[in-house]
Amino acid sequence: MLSKWKKRSTTPSNPYDHSSTSAGHRHPVLQLKELTKRYGEQTVLHEINWSVQPGECWGIVGPNGSGKTTLLQLLAGTEHAQQGEIFLQQRPLHTYSRRELAQHTAVLGQEGLAPLHYPVKEVLAMGRYPYQNWLGHDQLATADQLLDEIMERLDLKELADRPLDQLSGGQRQRVAFGKVMAQQPKLLLLDEPTTYLDIAYQVHFMEWLDTWRRESNITVIAVLHDLNLAARYCDRLLALQEGQIMMQGTPEQLMEESVLKQLFRIRPAIVHHPDIDVPQLLLKRR
Amino acid sequence: MSRQHVWPLLLFLILLVISVVLNTGIGSVYIPGGQITRILLHHIPGMQRWITPDWSEAAEQIMLNIRLPRVMLALLVGAALGLAGAAFQGVLRNPLADPFTLGVSSGSSVGAAVLIFTGYQYSLFGGWTLPLIAFVSGAITLYIVLALAREQGRIPTGSLILSGVVMQSFLGAIVSFLASMSEGSVNEIIFWTMGSLSLRGWPYVLAMLPYVVIGIVLLWSQARAMNVLSLGEREAAHLGVHVDRTKTVVLIIATLITAAAVSVSGVVAFVGLVVPHMIRLLLGPDYRLLIPLSAIGGGIFLMWADTAARTVLAPTEIPLGVVTAFVGAPFFAYLLHRSKKKQPDMM
């Protein structure tokens, strides 16, 4: 039933399936070189050097105003840097057409979708836009089947014909997630996707993401406010502070009391998750 | 084009044909629908053998030379305004946008009026001069209105309409002033500011036709992009839409067909507002359906409005824009009320 997600990881032509090759031969999906972004006088990002390997899940953390969202916009191609270069698949990002980029990179924001009067299945179908020709024919002959599978997996079947403006915020975010899945990206950018979700939805959301990521080998870069969520689901974390990289590493390396104290100016206490071996954060009073 | 879109389209086309026949029949001399159909069929080559003329020569003359061209012109002008309205609402993502509220109609009428009152309407490009100049002045107006309304890169619903109203009353004053200066009568002023389709005839129908046909084809080809655009500009960019290019193309086409309509009919208000919204209420927001149905629906709406304009106080004609404003202005008020309640700021 979920063959289509799995297909990408079993097709030999897939450039992201490196399961059989040794790690030494891997090329980074993304490479940022001396990236600097200014808005007027203000420097938002300063000489960022960073590379992302295929299949990795990165969490971008840092205080408000540290440049997290701007970095994501630059990676999505909706903002442009003044200096430096982003290489996507070893090719400068600005040489990609909008359509090529949309076939490669999908973005999911914190607000989900506006309460429009479009039915759920039409919104999911919009995720296929970058693959359709001017007559609306999809490159993928089984696109309808793909949409069905996504609805099945995200429990959207009963909502298929309901317009978005009749759904709750959590349901709309689920539709937004489905739309991004329909886009079949190789790189997924998330901007605080769980902000407006209650705790149960947050867990659901991250579990769907985790399963999808493992099945289809996509690379994920997520801006997350919730450090515990980031430590729980990401392989690597990137800490931004005032537009510069303060530190990058595994959750264990970054979730250190000294690091977090400096990054967020808080007094943290690090404990270990009872079931899985990841550090989790508790706060002490000032 | 999926199957679910075919039925509404077919239904609207049938309504269109019925409206053409009925509106051609209504007037000081009533011509029954069956007779109209037979006269029309009689003019199709090869059909003469099957239909024997049982109507008076006068009826045929009235129908073919007076009524039918007027009805067809109403159809085309209505189609153009309906299309332009749907297109403006789509790319500006503003429920109150239409050629009239944005000031584009008035802008086009200034260009056309200047040309006509100075007597240069056939200079430069012959028959194309008038719509071309109307397009240029309409496009300039739209540019100014958008620039006036922009606040930090965003265009709030309210300020867009406010800028449109300001431009529209200023430009309307220019047109009225020009008309007062010329030797023409009061009628001419009313023609330009309130719209009319009287005394036009077939050449105007033929001049209007290419704009409407090209407008439908080009705007329909942008329908999916406009659907995606309703998710938001950034969202649309992430899905591979060239946002700026799509917006520019659609705005130019919508302005062009508005200019063509204004060149033949003057300023007819609110058609582009009422018709797309009615269709949205009935069939939802999908532009793949909304674009063609706004054209057909605009045609149907204006045919009936024009029939009302010429028959209600016959032999006196009510300006066409008066009839459409009677329907459109209350509808505008309703939409304003609704959009305020639902989303204080749509952009």
From TrEMBL, chain B:
InterPro entries, sorted: ABC_BtuC-like, ABC_transptr_permease_BtuC
Domain of life, per lineage: Bacteria
Keyword line: Cell membrane, Membrane, Transmembrane, Transmembrane helix, Transport
Main location class: membrane
Residues passing through the membrane, by range: 6-31, 71-88, 127-148, 160-180, 201-221, 249-275, 287-306, 318-337
Topology in membrane: Multi-pass membrane protein
Keyword Membrane: yes
Annotated localization: Cell membrane
PANTHER family: ABC TRANSPORTER PERMEASE PROTEIN MJ0876-RELATED (PTHR30472:SF25), FERRIC ENTEROBACTIN TRANSPORT SYSTEM PERMEASE PROTEIN (PTHR30472)
Family: Belongs to the binding-protein-dependent transport system permease family. FecCD subfamily.
Protein name from the UniProt record: Iron complex transport system permease protein
Species this protein is from: Paenibacillus hunanensis
Upper taxonomic lineage: Bacteria, Bacillati, Bacillota, Bacilli, Bacillales
